[in-house]
Model the fold of this input.
Amino acid sequence: MVTDLKTMVGTKTGLLDRRIFVNKDIYQQELEKVFGRCWLWIGHESRVPNNNDFFANYMGEDPILLTRDSKGKMHTFRNMCRHRGNRICRADNSNAPSFICTYHGWTFATDGKLVGVPGYKEAYFEELDRLQ
Done:
């Protein structure tokens, strides 16, 4: 793993070694030391000006959604179904009252809550915790 990044950044000249953009070891260190340890800027509220607007982005390698729910409150959550990890939204940005996983049809509200599960009574006997 690359440990001496100081030699790759010319603080006096402003020059950067090109390897910092393509080296896999540096990228893994960045994921661990930057994306895994600090607050990240996801997007400005102007990206979701209206109720039910959404904007897709990434936190490191994790796909996320920035949304404004039907009451106007903003939320951020992973763009993944809790059941199988499938994406719940494939668009970059738009307006929608909910997101539906194409794998099994689980439905999520714009605040990230699970609001619909096909076969909830028959297959899950109403015991599936939909609040997590």
Observations:
- Residues 24-35 form the longest helix (12 residues).
- The chain has two domains: 5-35, 45-116.
